[in-house]
Design brief:
The protein is 55% helix and 0% strand. The chain has helices at 10-14, 22-26, 33-45, 52-68, 86-101.
Length: 102
C-alpha cells in the first residue's frame, strides 16, 4: 500500500484519494485503473499504443468489477500515458529551458 516515489500508491489511486500533479496531468496520468496499470507494469504496457496484454488486464478488471457490483470508473487504459521515469526528464527539460533560455 505504500507508494514508491515518484509513483503514487495504487490503493490511493483506485479508491480516489490520489490527486495528480500538473506534471502527471501533462503526462496523461489521471485517476483510474490505467494509472494503476502504469504503476504496476507501465514499462511493458503503457505509452506504446494498443497492447493485447493490457486489453486482457482490463477485461479481467471489468469482470471482477461486475462480479463485485462496482463501477469500472474512468480512464481504464494507459496506451497513451507517459511512464513514470519520464517525469524526471520533463522536469529537467523545463528547468533547463527556464534557467538557460529565459
Amino acid at each position: 500500500m505504500m507508494p514508491q516515489s515518484p509513483k503514487p500508491s495504487c490503493h490511493e489511486v483506485i479508491i480516489g484519494k490520489w490527486t495528480p500533479s500538473d506534471v502527471d496531468r501533462l503526462a496523461g496520468r489521471v485517476p483510474g485503473y490505467g494509472t494503476v496499470t502504469n504503476i504496476i507494469n507501465g514499462g511493458v504496457e503503457c505509452g506504446k499504443g494498443f497492447d493485447a496484454n493490457g486489453a486482457d488486464r482490463i477485461r479481467f478488471y471489468k469482470r471482477y468489477c461486475d462480479i463485485l457490483g462496482v463501477s469500472y470508473g474512468d480512464h481504464l487504459y494507459c496506451y497513451r500515458r507517459s511512464l513514470y521515469i519520464y517525469i524526471y526528464i520533463y522536469i529537467y527539460i523545463y528547468i533547463y529551458i527556464y534557467i538557460y533560455i529565459y
